[in-house]
Amino acid sequence: MREKLFKFPPAFLALLLFSFPLLGQNQTTRGYQEYVILQSSDTLYGEIQEGLDSKSIRFQSATNSVQDFSVGQVKGYKTKNGKSYVGIEVNLGDEGPNLLFVQALVIGKVSLYQYREFFFVTKDDSVSVQIKMVEKEEYVGEKRVIRKTYTNLGKLSYLLSDCSLLPSVTGFRILTERNLTNLIVDYNECTSENFIVFKNEKPWTSFSFGVAGGMNSSNISFTSTQTLYIVISEGTFSTSKSLALMASLAVSSPRINERISFRTDILYHKSSFTALISNNYRDFLNNEQMDFSLHSVTLPVTFQYMLKKKILNPYLNLGISYQRNFGTEMNYVREIGSKDTPYIEEKAEPFVVKKALFGFTGTVGLSKSFSAGTSGFIELRAVSAENFHATNFDEFTGIAAKQITSSLLSLSLMAGINF
């Protein structure tokens, strides 16, 4: 006998089809995009404050009253990120039957649901298939190989076998929300049955472009146990402050997760540094000054995680950066000897700044939506790189360059717009 993972009468499915068309749309009541549908079919608009667990939610109504609903008290609910959940009974292996909130992806003659790493495909009210990725250990000759496969692909193929136009399910090497959704949609279209695709208004892939301007602050420091450049080992370089310009590109999949995106930027700024040190004793002079400036183009590549809030959306970026330096200008002056007859030594380029630097970057920011597809943001970015000097300190000092280390830290405060 085929095990039932879902148990609900056909009338329940019909009620879902009648009640949930709103769940796939952006319609609101009094500004609210979130709501719950009670067992009485009444709809309460408000805010889903949090999912307490997979069996209950906390809901704040439009009148600001807060109430906890268990999975048996509501038919379903929708969150503002466009995800819709229904309460149904599932069997998660050894755990036995559980009445849980699961995400509805497609509802029709054949429906698709997701709960954590599980996908569930149901047909009418009697046949259901649970799909999960598993790892199997195999040996090819004497070599141990771990293969990723999926459970119940044969059952899923049989479930959809009355539509000959579908591709072979067993031919899928990777099953994702996207290709499973497309498969179930194709089946329902093949059988000419009515169906609902949730989050249908959200694209699988979305691109966002941004421009910004702001201020950049850069600091450099050197660490050296010995060097004839005392200004390097003992001096402190001034903080460089300059204007900065930035363009950005973010790629996300709102259909899967609106909070996570891949982002790359191009950031330009100019830095200027000065260090001066004096070791004068009576009539003896020993002064050193070093100045240098450079133009930098930084390309951070990061993953962005955004928290959805009512007014402002905070976000965090972490990743790596590539910095290209050019147009370096440098000067070193040393004044040594007696005050009456000082000896002045100049060196145009005491060391070389690397043209290419790799480092790490992090960003914290706030975003606010103005209209569909347009938002403003303000963010603070940090970029850190080590050993930005090349290896020719020893041309003048006779000391191996490995005895000198350097670090660069840049902070950028940017404000801009995404579209």
Entry summary:
By secondary structure, the protein is mainly beta. The chain is built from five helices and 22 strands.
Secondary structure layout plus pairing:
Layout: H1 10-19, E1 34-38, E2 43-53, E3 56-61, E4 66-70, E5 74-78, E6 84-91, E7 97-107, E8 110-115, E9 118-123, E10 127-131, E11 133-140, E12 143-150, H2 153-159, H3 177-190, E13 196-197, E14 206-224, H4 230-233, E15 240-253, E16 257-278, E17 284-306, E18 313-338, E19 342-347, E20 356-371, E21 374-386, H5 394-397, E22 404-418
Antiparallel strand pairs: 1-2, 1-5, 2-3, 3-4, 5-6, 6-7, 7-8, 7-13, 8-9, 9-10, 11-12, 14-15, 14-22, 15-16, 16-17, 17-18, 18-19, 18-20, 20-21, 21-22
Question: In words, what does this structure look like?
Answer:
By secondary structure, the chain is mainly beta. It has two domains: 10-197, no CATH class; 206-418, Porin. It is built from five helices and 22 strands. The chain has helices at 10-19, 153-159, 177-190, 230-233, 394-397; strands at residues 34-38, 43-53, 56-61, 66-70, 74-78, 84-91, 97-107, 110-115, 118-123, 127-131, 133-140, 143-150, 196-197, 206-224, 240-253, 257-278, 284-306, 313-338, 342-347, 356-371, 374-386, 404-418. Strands 1, 2, 3, 4, 5, 6, 7, 8, 9, 10 and 13 form an eleven-stranded antiparallel β-sheet that branches. Strands 14-15-16-17-18-20-21-22 form an eight-stranded antiparallel beta barrel.
